[in-house]
Amino acid sequence: MSDVVFRRARRADLERIVDLLADDAVNGWRERPGAPLAPSYVRAFEAIDADANNLLVVGEMDGEIVATGQVTFIPGLTQQGGARAIVEGVRVAARLRSRGVGEKLIDHLGAAARARGCVCVQLTTSKPRVDAQRFYTRIGFSDSHVGFKRDLK
Predict the structure, then answer these.
(1) Which class does domain 5-138 fall in?
(2) Angle in degrees, 0-180, between the axes of helices 39-50 and 14-22, rounded to the nearest 10
(3) Per-domain residue ranges for the chain?
(4) Which sign, positive or negative, has the C-alpha torsion 84, 137, 20, 148?
(5) 38, 57, 124, 131 - which has most CB atoms within 10 Å?
């Protein structure tokens, strides 16, 4: 297995990114992979790509996109005006899970946050994702907060 290389996502990567998002036993049902892509994916990609406070990355291995993740940089007043980074949409191709790709992806997103001067990186994961929770704990995240969400549609 060759090493994974991370880079900023391009529009041409979008179909594969959606495939990765859909390959998820917990929340994959929310996605609509396949051509033609829903226009909402294209609009979202364009907004993310145009926003300096967002970074969408892909991980490539042997020319194939095998991972993706997004980090959003948020200025804040707490922690003495410290910015924070929110990580979302982390996915690794099923056949490569538990092989270090996810940890390298999180390290890459964390390095981007550090370079932007963020004081912390935070994320949420669904309660049924016990494997993901173990993974995040193993790589240094703590379950220090209680998170809440409210659907708006």
Answers:
(1) alpha beta
(2) 110
(3) 5-138
(4) negative
(5) 57
Can you tell me the distance from the alpha carbon of 18 to that of 127, in angstroms, rounded to the nearest whole number? 22
Q: Write down the pTM of the prediction.
A: 0.92
CA–CA gap between residue 100 and residue 4 (Å, rounded): 10
Q: Phi first, then psi: give them for residue 98, nearest 5 degrees.
A: 65, 25
pLDDT band at residue 148 using 50, 70 and 90 as cut-offs: confident
Kindly report, residue by residue over 4-29, the tens digit of the pLDDT. 999 999 999 999 999 999 998 888 78
Whether pLDDT at 1 is above 60: no
In the beta sheet, which residues pair with residue 6? Answer: 59
**Residue 55 phi, psi dihedral angles, 5° rounding:** -140, 120
Burial of 71 (0-12, 13-18, 19+ CB in 10 A): buried
Q: Which residues contact 131 (CB under 8 A, 6 or more apart)?
A: none
Strand partners, 55: 71
- What are the residues facing 70 on neighbouring strands? 56, 88
